[in-house]
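Run NADP-dependent oxidoreductase through structure prediction, thanks.
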Amino acid sequence: MKAFILDRYKKKSALRFGDMPKPALGQDDVLVEVHSAGLNLLDSKIRDGEFKLILPYRLPLVLGHDVAGVVVRVGANVRRFKPGDEIYARPRDGRVGTFAEFIAINEADVALKPKNLTMEDAASVPLVGLTAWQVLVDRAKLAKGQKILIHAGSGGVGTFAIQLAKHLGATVATTTSVANAELVKNLGADVVIDYKNQDFEKILSDYDVVLNSLAGDTLQKSLNVLKPGGKLISISGPPDPDFAKEQGLNWFLRQVLRFLSFGIRRKAKGRQVSYSFLFMRASGAQLSQITSLIEAGILRPVMDRVFPFEATNEGLAYIETGRSKGKVVVKLK
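Sure, done. The structure for NADP-dependent oxidoreductase is below.
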């Protein structure tokens, strides 16, 4: 099968377009013919080697963390899906590979595609949808009447998180550029901060939750908008000891992550707030709940561009510019 392959870790390098064996089908797997695949910065970061300590993949590797497609075969133990089903998924870590014509996915990671979405739209949802869900619902336990700041509101996670936060009854502030202000307002943002000309930490206060997806000093500044008991949840790092424990990392790596996050955890404790790092996990069950909200018209994907499959490297280069509004996908079928 045709695929985009990572042969070695190297920053900004192009993935190799070539042939790989069709994936083997396990007893608990569904074999999916890929119709569309979402592009994520996570793919670029793995390619660049940023996660090689905590995600020890064996190379060569097919990248890709979002998929929409059709089930063509099922393993002996599979009961929830059958050939011909239209599905979408974020395959679990260790089994990614949606930049290919076929992928085998554990049944537990898969959900039926929302009936009101195209394959391209559906492929844009799983990673960002599950990230937003696990931050807001699982970790933050965001409740009606609370206030949340969502950084980078026009990005993939941001566009989804704004909608979900509004559905949960929260007041939503977000940072974005002037060019994207109307977009985030239409998604439900109550307060829009122009990050180029306004300082969010001087405008916002007494917030319950901050969802951070940015690097630099944004993380430190975010502590200043939280009230005592508030939660700073970052999906861009630094990873913390709880994450190291969840991943089952060895003693040395646990100490490394403890050191990397020590500063922000200490400052958070000094302000009587909590800091945590979230690395989303695959979940077909949660994706099914997201499907219900999409089919009810409560959540909608925001799409920037669709690239042909052959232009996967160009698509990754585009999202690395940081200028995309919502998601970017590649189309195979």
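Residues 165 and 240 are 25 Å apart (CA to CA).
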